[in-house]
């Protein structure tokens, strides 16, 4: 019997709401200020780490991962991102008559620039998927070692170790942090497996 895990969908919806809140309040906080705006701004700051945590969780929950799966996933994401860049360049041309260089704006998205700066998330997700292939097999073979390393990694970040890396790059390139959340999501599967062992049900994650 297959059962969809509704908690994943609820968490995904919460992250989507968090993204809207984070970006809306980001504009409001730095223009008008106010304690409520700042509170809502920081309440939405979980959304990006949450997405990477969920991505790692879904990767770790798979029975097996092949390079063809990673390749197909990355190609699908990049195609959609390219399509959105084409769409917004077309909209800009229709509104202003100015034609942007397509490839320049597509690659600029990697550094959160260009006509679609929010696409940095998708490029970083592709990179994490690529790194996720060896990490997945390491996690499956040595789950306790993997989980212990993730805990130590996140504790080190919590106590300020590695801040010099973060201070020299923008938030969109905090790969040491987002990779940590991605790996933490994978490690959560071990805890979930222990809690649900003996339930006799298969969870449908996709």
**Count of runs of 4 or more consecutive helical residues:** 9
Q: Shape, please?
A: globular
Number of domains: 1
Helical coverage, percent range: over 70%
Q: Report the major sheet.
A: 2 strands, parallel
- The total strand number stands at 2
Radius of gyration: 19 Å
Mean pLDDT: 80
Distance between the termini: 15 Å
* Unreliable stretches: 168-173, 200-206
Please trace the helix and strand order, writing H or E for each element: EHHHHHHHHHE
Sheet with the most strands: spatial strand order: 1-2
State the secondary-structure class.
mainly alpha
Sheet-strand content, in percent, reads under 5%
Task: Describe, in short, the structure shown.
With 206 residues, this protein is mainly alpha-helical.
Q: How are the SSEs placed, and which strands pair?
A:
Layout: E1 2-4, H1 6-29, H2 35-43, H3 47-60, H4 67-96, H5 102-108, H6 120-141, H7 143-158, H8 163-167, H9 175-196, E2 202-204
Parallel strand pairs: 1-2
Helix pairs in contact: 1-2, 1-3, 3-6, 3-9, 4-6, 6-7, 6-9, 7-9
What are the key terms here?
3% strand, 206 residues, mainly alpha, 9 helices, globular, two-stranded parallel sheet, 2 strands
Q: How does this structure look, described?
A:
- 72% of the residues lie in helices and 3% in strands.
- It has 206 residues and is an all-alpha fold.
- The protein has a two-stranded parallel sheet.
- The two termini are 15 Å apart.
């Amino acid at each position: 019997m297959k059962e969809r895990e509704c908690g994943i969908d609820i968490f995904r919806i919460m992250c989507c709401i968090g993204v809207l809140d984070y970006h809306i309040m980001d504009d409001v906080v730095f223009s008008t200020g106010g304690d409520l705006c700042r509170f809502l701004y920081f309440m939405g700051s979980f959304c990006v780490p949450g997405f990477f945590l969920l991505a790692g969780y879904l990767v770790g929950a798979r029975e097996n991962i092949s390079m063809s799966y990673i390749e197909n996933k990355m190609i699908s994401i990049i195609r959609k991102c390219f399509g959105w860049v084409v769409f917004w360049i077309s909209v800009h041309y229709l509104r202003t008559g100015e034609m942007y260089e397509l490839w320049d704006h597509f690659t600029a998205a990697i550094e959160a620039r260009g006509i679609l700066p929010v696409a940095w998330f998708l490029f970083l997700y592709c990179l994490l998927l690529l790194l996720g292939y060896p990490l997945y097999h390491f996690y499956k073979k040595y789950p306790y070692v993997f989980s212990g390393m993730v805990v130590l990694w996140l504790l080190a970040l919590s106590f300020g170790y590695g801040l010099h890396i973060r201070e020299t790059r923008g938030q969109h390139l905090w790969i040491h942090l987002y990779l940590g959340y991605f790996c933490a999501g994978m490690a959560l599967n071990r805890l979930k497996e222990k809690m649900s062992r003996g339930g006799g049900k298969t969870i449908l994650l996709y």
